[in-house]
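#data-curation
PF: Archiving a pair of folding outputs for the training set. Convention for this channel: one message per protein, sequence first, structure tokens after, nothing in between. First:
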Amino acid sequence: MIALRPLIDADAPAIRRVYSGATVTFLGRPAMTSQEAEDYVVRVREWAAADPIEQYVLGIDVAGDLVGVVKLGRRPNGHGRVSYVLREDCWGRGYATKAVEELVVFAFTTAGLGSLGAKHHPGNPVSGRVLEKAGFIRLGIQNGMVEYRLTLTKCRIRRRYLVAGGYLSSRVASVRCPCAWLSM
């Protein structure tokens, strides 16, 4: 079971492990240094304190182990961009799919967005499968990346949310308000 949660200062070493090894192959960057990881966590906490929040970055926590992050960036006209990165030793366990599904629910409910986009490197088809499992539709290749889109009306998670009458779990609900981020 995964939980999405705000990052805390103590997460810097885990963030460094996430952004290292084969994980950075398709990110267009080298492995993160310890200082970069510390700076990243500080930046993420500043973004979380903003009003309004334009960039959500949530840790993917598995039994107390931070194994990755999911990101939701606000764009104009009720659109958001989703991205995610998972530590290499956690690939193939369904964590990315579950995290993206949780983030989609958060985006369409709490964040109030109407559509989402995402992309991945063409050499990383597994990332595309994560998006498709979460309901995203492949649009094609644009600027060398495979682009995807998901709208509220086409979101299978939306049905689950409505049928369940509150699918949004307490794990995600705990980050509804910027004040929840500040208290971490």
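PF: Second:
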Amino acid sequence: MKVVIAEDDLPSRKILSLFLSKMPSFQIVGEANNGEELIRYIVTEKPDIALVDIELPLINGMDAIKSCKKLLPNLQIIFITGNDEYALEAFGVNAVDYIIKPIEYDRFKHALQRASHMVIKEEELVEDPSSKKQENKLVLKYYNNITVIPTNDIYYIEKQERKTFIHTSNKVYQSSLSLEELLEKLPDNFVQSHRSNIVNVSQIEYIESHGQTYFAKFSGYKEPARISKLQLKSIQHIIARQ
């Protein structure tokens, strides 16, 4: 997949290039030092994914992306920046992720994988618009058992060591799938809120804080889900849009 990097800080740009070199399925087709170059690369190269620092010279990354999304609405965006003040605005342009520097490889890799899955989904819809699935059921196979769970019944999903537990209104199901694999099977109202939790944002009644720790509370279910400080604003924004 084609990737454009927009980063005016040379050391940060080198780190991104190094990380991408470890993932052969991604090809860098442009490296922009400012917002104008970013727009030019997106127009000429038509990349699948853009890695964008927001505080770019000439035109900031957010404004550049808003312009580019009009030309390439299926462009997948990952913002990589030094502060969190633009987080709500970033998810307003449907960014795949919002990564705060310093950049960690595992977080970066996960974001690229999510972006690539989004690209593949968009391509499938273009080829066959009728192929868009009705994501109202989660089908699980655990050993020799097959379970069908209505996604509306799911409150949250929790990873504990090598096992994954799906908390629903009826019972807690166990799965051998990773959080990443489950997230691919679920509709857009499911968000990874913490490294060990996925939440059904539609089921959240309120968010409670205990110091620097945040919990999603659900109506009619006593067990809360964890929310990381990094994901808090984006989840609050999604709830506000519902």
